[in-house]
Design goal:
mainly alpha; 2 domains; 69% helix
């Protein structure tokens, strides 16, 4: 049984009649279950961290407790970073015509880590009344240069 026949049967297309469509010619056109589960797991972890962010924001005051501001900044950065990891992976998956290449997950995790650090730093700068748009643009420019250097496809 060829890949086309297998995919045709899997998706309800009659392989015996030769009616498999053009989109079922590649083996990797359907997202694998491990990638789907990884996306759902990271989104689930992000949901848990967002709940923790809600608890910290509603129960602790950063003006009274100085540690609450840093805890909140770290949690907000982690929540945003975890939320963006699957989005980065899915955007690359779509750009590669629904084919997952080796290293796509590591690249998505690295970009999510960048987002985590940038968001946490910007929140801390805001809490300390040190935030300036020029500093934020400089941080973003440095991250873009570093990521462009690290993600060059060889």
């Amino acid at each position: 049984m060829s890949v086309i026949e297998y995919r045709g049967r899997l998706h309800g297309v009659a392989a015996a009649t030769g009616t498999s469509s053009k989109r079922h010619r590649l083996d990797s056109l359907v997202m694998e279950s491990r990638d789907r589960l990884a996306n759902l797991a990271v989104f689930g972890a992000a949901a848990v961290v967002w709940i923790l962010v809600g608890l910290v924001v509603t129960t602790r005051d950063p003006r009274v407790d100085s540690g609450a501001g840093f805890l909140g900044a770290g949690l907000i950065g982690l929540a945003v970073g975890l939320t963006t990891i699957p989005l980065f992976w899915l955007s690359v998956f779509a750009r590669h015509r629904r084919i997952a290449y080796r290293g796509d997950w590591m690249r998505a995790v690295r970009r999510g880590a960048w987002v985590t650090v940038v968001v946490a730093v910007l929140v801390v700068l805001r809490l300390q009344n040190l935030f300036q748009p020029q500093v934020a643009l400089f941080i973003l420019a440095m991250v873009f240069v570093a990521e462009a250097t690290l993600s060059v496809e060889r």
